[in-house]
Write a structure and sequence with these properties.
This protein is an alpha+beta fold and about 500 residues long. It contains 13 helices and 25 strands.
Length: about 500
């Protein structure tokens, strides 16, 4: 494609084109639409995913859903589970008093998550086109020209690749994706068994004592989730993109070959000595444990989010959550850039904030992968960590890490709350998260002496002297993180300008 693309004009129909309508792409589209950005989502698959894989929404994702009024809809289709036993599948309960109103995991079918998020984006005004794959693009100083697989060309001011671990956008952008290739494979699926629940449970518990990667858990109606490591496989395993966007695009199947029921039976017999009489599968997948991180999240007017920016083993169930949280971080910043309200460096903070978070997730999944090894050394470390997790602070730290409520962005010197997310508070005007549905900033003012004049088109002002805070006032970003703490107007004005641009007179 030529790099001499036409200049963007008001007649151009889109501000942002998003490649991929998995959880990350759909969430980003909805976030952009909250700010009036014209969005087109292109999804190469003609139909939504059909297999009923259960995924888990962790605490921070549940909080973000509550901030946009989506949590009740999610909970209608999900099942609450205890917020414990996540790290390397070490069975420890969650510590008491986690700093959240949502101290649980929500297990929910993946098609439901994708469907609800896509429906929300469309309700907000996003356009979604299925069966349309991005083949190439070229950017210039005014925008991006996107070429589809059928040769059609579309124009937008920005392009965001949310197209999974094998991202076409990332590859065409020339961004490196360094890391470690897959060393092992795991089969995962949901199917019925031909033995009693008592027999299945007892045998699964026996195997799990020496191989924590093995799992056979009932899901009701005679259906079990089966997770079994592949033995006697080749040393070199092709990279497999693990995560919600990759699954949505079919990227979880090795070399294009999905596992068969016979594959499951063979591996179950090799690991457990029995195939449990498995039959009638709902879905079957093959996962690798590749770990990779994009060198850059942005090149000019093209950005990456979700699995297009990072892949890792599914340990701890963090993939979907990480991508959705990328979208919440990027959405309001990209919208501000498009509307001409962004400070010069605002869009750059997407990478500086989110890439270190992904690095930390990759590290903890690497650690968990080692702890699931059946070798004597890793097993000894696992036993030691299991003992250490009886210490409340250790267990709490690991739970907060997996559920992403430990994140603290570097906003400079200040109280510990600065740069952290604020839990859902009970205020005189109602629940805090209910007041964030519009995706705007919020000044929570306990002094009744401050003002957001000049920014009232972007920031709400809530006066509540009884707010349960141990600081006078906080300024919250649209993604729920505390951007300022204090009680002086000039200091507040400086931070309003830092995050929300210049005031309107």
């Amino acid at each position: 494609m030529t790099s001499h693309s036409p200049r963007h004009t008001d007649a151009d129909p889109y501000d942002v084109i998003i490649a991929g309508c998995g959880p990350t792409g759909a969430t980003l589209a909805a976030e952009l639409r909250l700010h009036g950005v014209r969005v087109l989502v292109l999804e190469k698959e003609t139909e939504p995913v059909s297999f009923v894989r259960i995924v888990g929404l962790h605490i921070r994702s549940l909080e973000l859903m509550a901030m946009r009024g989506l949590l009740d809809r999610m909970r209608e289709h999900g099942r609450r589970r205890p917020a414990g036993g996540f790290f390397a599948a070490i069975a420890k309960p969650a510590p008491a008093g986690l700093d959240t109103a949502h101290a649980y995991l929500l297990g929910i079918p993946q098609p439901v998550v994708v469907g609800l998020l896509e429906e929300h984006a469309i309700q907000q005004g996003a356009q979604v086109r299925r069966g349309r794959a991005v083949a190439a693009f070229a950017q210039d100083s005014h925008g991006v020209t996107v070429e589809l697989a059928d040769g059609q060309q579309l124009r937008a001011r920005y392009l965001v690749g949310c197209d999974g671990g094998r991202s076409t956008v990332r590859k065409r952008l020339g961004v490196g994706f360094p890391g470690e290739p897959s060393r092992a494979e795991t089969l995962m699926g949901e199917m019925e068994v031909g033995v009693s629940q008592e027999e299945a449970t007892a045998k699964a518990a026996e195997i799990h004592e020496t191989d924590s990667t093995f799992s056979l858990r009932p899901f009701g109606g005679g259906v079990y989730r089966v997770v079994v490591p592949v033995v006697h496989h080749a040393t070199a395993v092709p990279d497999v993109a693990v995560g919600p966007d990759a699954l949505h695009a079919g990227g979880n199947e090795r070399a294009g070959r999905p596992p068969t029921l016979d594959d499951f039976k063979q591996q179950l017999r090799a690991v457990a000595g029995t195939d449990f009489g498995v039959h009638s599968p709902r879905w079957m997948s093959r996962f690798g444990d590749a770990t990779r991180l994009a060198e850059r999240y942005r090149v000019g007017r093209v950005l990456l989010a979700g699995d297009a920016a990072h892949i890792h083993p599914p340990a701890g169930g963090q993939g979907l959550n990480l991508g959705v949280q990328d979208a919440f971080n990027l959405g309001w910043k990209l919208a501000a850039q498009i509307r001409g309200r962004a400070p010069d460096t605002l869009l750059d903070t997407y990478q500086t904030e989110r890439r270190p978070v992904a690095e930390a997730v990759l590290d903890n999944t690497r650690a968990q992968r080692e702890l699931t090894s059946t070798e004597p050394g890793p097993q000894a470390v696992r036993r030691l960590l299991t003992e250490l997790m009886d210490i409340d602070e250790v267990n709490r730290r690991l739970i907060e890490k997996i559920t992403a409520i430990d994140i603290r962005y570097d906003f400079g010197a200040g109280p510990d709350l600065l740069g952290r997310r604020l839990r859902d508070l009970d205020l005189a005007q109602g629940r805090l998260y209910d007041l964030l549905h519009r995706g705007r900033g919020l000044l929570l003012d306990r002094t009744a002496g401050l003002s957001v004049d000049g920014w009232s088109d972007r920031v709400d002002h809530l006066t509540d002297p009884t707010a349960p805070l141990d600081v006078p006032c906080v300024l919250m970003r649209p993604d729920g993180y505390v951007a300022w703490i204090g009680d002086e107007q000039q200091d507040l004005d400086d931070h309003l300008a830092r995050w929300f641009g210049e005031p309107v007179s």
